[in-house]
Specification:
The complex is a heterodimer. Chain A is mostly helical. Chain A contains 15 helices and two strands. Chain A has a single domain, classed as ABC transporter involved in vitamin B12 uptake, BtuC, CATH 1.10.3470. Chain B has a two-stranded antiparallel sheet. Classes of the chains: A mainly alpha, B mainly alpha.
């Protein structure tokens, strides 16, 4: 029974949030902040697969997010809404309710395929050279989007609100919030199951010693491919949700700055700690919103805080441990299944 | 046809010079510390700003003025030297405040890298918050003369940039190959553990490395500001990342590599922009890099490390 406690807790929390936002008991600003927390959780925990568990240095996560965001929104616009470029909708707009997760998943798959751009060079390259490749992929994605005029180029792509609206016309519930919560829960659960499975322990083995791992019959190439594709696919799903929350995306939102932000969350929480990533994603998003009144000085205070944190606790908040290692009592409640938030 | 080629060739040499000078800082620090100093692009920006303030002061643009007027050439040289000294101090203080305590603690490499990223953000946003978002125009220190040679036009600034870069290359190669400090630098990159045991003061060598790298970034900053006289807080970001890429293409940790990579990247960018629409410049440049690194993962001059089991 206790192994379902995490799931039950998360489901209850989600239902409360949904109820509050459906009844407009919390204002739109708080709703958006909650959705961004969800997206940041997906981003930081998926980057943690590469940077934390596999010990590589990927600094182009925003690129995969961009692929997911654009594929999902273009599909949505093409299928469910009338648009200047894509013409009338192919399917009745009401079907968006059922097919929205499909387009979201399609964005994830496209991003996972883009992840191959990094995965294939990673067979031969490691460390700093791989970091450059991820950086280059981020730039390549951003500047290819800028050069495709059909989807708006550098001006950006908009209209996703129409899709969300046609979903609300069928049933008036906060759809985007629902999908953000589901995707967050699922991806944390997926990553948890993956890194704790015998199969997934292969990526930790690659971090510790690639050659030894290979001798111990870990198929390193395959593991790398799986890790990169999983990580970038989840980033793509986060991107798709991001596009539907804002209703407008442009290539400028997916720069190195965004990648840096995600990286900061991973290192803040601690490499190789899933609960650390989740906690730091929540903390970082809230911190960003709290510091908003500082305006320009926000981006002075945040790096400064992180530098100080690094000086006193260089391994991040949780280091290599999970929350249940720090507070052993949690184990009694959540068993081995420490999913959810 | 030949004239356009020569014209682009000159432009590429100048553009590559900036990349090479900045890439040098990455490569020197990496060679000694195995640290990617991501704050380096912003050190370049700081250099340009320091140069701006010194030049404006020397030209009498502030309330506090020099009692005598200087000739424009003298102003340029004094600005260059003062900027290099001050920027080197900025670089060294970053090392002292942020990197050295982490190194003492034996923190993992990636944590130092993330600290470097944060230092860069701090520098650019601190600048934005303190000096405001308005762009500044760098005073004209060297009067631009345009020479025409056949169909090829070039300015004295362009020639100055290219010649300076070549001189810096020769100077640095001499320092690293012929002097005792250079030998110590090479020793540290060869075996970090054994060096302190041989009585070589590792910290002094590291500080010296930062001085060299930061002053070269300052040099690039002032030259860049003379060639393109618009300063803004984020000017170092993109050029910094690209210089890092140049350093990696050349084989990071090798001085020759930084120059080769810098010029190569300059050539790719300028010639892509000459043939294709200029919006494709980044796309093609980075794709070339991706393909290159897939086939030669260690860069031009890099040597693959063999791992002992």
């Amino acid at each position: 029974m206790q192994r379902y406690n995490g799931f039950i807790l998360f489901a209850l929390g989600s239902l409360i949030v949904l109820g509050l936002s459906h009844g407009n008991l919390i204002n739109a600003y708080i709703q958006i902040t909650i959705m961004f927390i969800g997206i940041n959780i997906i981003l930081s925990s998926s980057l943690n697969i590469i940077n934390g568990y596999m010990g590589e240095f990927s600094c182009g996560h925003a690129g995969f997010m961009a692929v997911g965001a654009y594929v999902t929104s273009v599909l949505n616009m093409w299928l469910f809404a009338s648009d200047r470029v894509f013409g009338p909708p192919l399917l009745p707009p009401a079907s968006a309710v059922l097919l929205f997760p499909v387009t979201l998943l399609a964005g994830g798959i496209a991003a996972a395929l883009a992840g191959l751009l990094v995965a294939v060079p990673s067979f031969r390259t490691r460390g700093d050279y791989l970091a450059i490749i991820t950086l280059a992929v981020n730039y390549i994605v951003k500047s290819s989007i800028e050069n495709i005029q059909v989807i708006g180029g550098a001006r950006g792509f908009m209209g996703m609100r129409k899709v969300v609206q046609s979903m609300s016309e069928v049933l008036d519930v906060p759809w985007v919030m629902i999908w953000v919560l589901i995707a967050t829960g699922l991806s944390v659960w997926l990553i948890y199951r993956f890194v704790n499975s015998t199969y997934g322990k292969g990526i930790v083995a690659i971090r510790d010693d690639e050659i030894a791992a290979e001798i111990m019959s870990v198929n390193t190439q395959r593991m790398k491919m799986v890790a990169f594709m999983l990580s970038s696919g989840l980033a793509g799903i986060a991107g798709g949700l991001f596009a539907n929350i804002l209703g407008y995306i442009n290539p400028g939102s997916f720069t190195i700055m965004k990648s840096t932000e995600v990286m900061v969350m991973v290192y803040l929480g601690g490499m190789g700690s899933l609960s650390g990533s989740v906690l730091s994603a929540v903390g970082f998003t809230v911190l960003m919103e709290v510091l908003r009144p500082l305006q320009l000085f926000k981006w002075v205070v945040i790096p400064l805080l992180l530098i100080v944190l690094m000086l006193f606790r260089p391994e991040g908040i949780l280091g290599n441990r999970e929350l249940s290692d720090v507070f052993p009592r949690l184990k009694r409640w959540f068993g081995t299944e420490q999913g959810g938030k | 046809m030949l004239e356009t080629f020569l014209q682009n060739f000159l432009n590429a040499l100048q553009w590559g010079s900036f990349y090479a000078l900045i890439a040098l800082g990455y490569t020197l620090v990496y060679g000694v510390l195995l640290l990617i100093n991501f704050a380096h692009g912003d050190i370049f920006m700081v250099g340009a700003y320091i140069g701006f303030f010194i030049a404006t002061f020397l030209l009498g643009g502030y309330a506090l003025q020099l009692p005598f007027a200087l000739a424009p050439g003298v102003v340029f040289v004094v600005t260059l030297i003062l900027t290099m000294v001050l920027t080197a101090m900025v670089g060294v203080s970053l090392e002292r405040v942020a990197y050295r305590p982490l190194r003492r603690k034996g923190a993992g490499r990636l944590y130092v890298v993330i600290t470097a990223l944060m230092c860069g953000l701090l520098l650019e946003n601190g600048n934005l918050a303190l000096l405001g978002a308005s762009r500044r125009s760098f005073p004209e220190l060297i009067e631009k003369t345009v020479y025409k040679f056949g169909g090829v036009t070039f300015t004295n600034v362009k020639v100055l940039v290219i010649i300076t870069t070549i001189l810096v290359f020769v100077l640095l190669e001499t320092i690293v190959r012929r002097t005792k400090l250079g030998m110590a630098m090479r020793a540290i990159s060869y075996d970090r553990m054994a060096v302190p045991l041989m009585g070589i003061p590792a910290d002094t060598v590291i500080v010296f490395t930062f001085i060299l790298g930061s002053s070269m970034a300052a040099l690039a900053g002032v030259l860049f500001a003379v060639a393109y006289p618009v300063l803004e807080p984020y000017m170092g970001v993109l050029i910094g990342w690209k210089a890092f890429i140049a350093a990696v293409i050349g084989g990071i940790g090798e001085i020759r590599g930084a120059f080769a990579g810098g010029f190569l990247l300059g050539f790719v960018e300028i010639f892509v922009a000459a043939v294709f629409p200029s919006t494709l410049r980044d796309l093609i440049g980075f794709s070339v890099l991706l393909v290159f690194l897939s086939f030669k993962p260690t860069g031009i001059f890099g040597v693959a490390k063999t791992t002992k089991i």
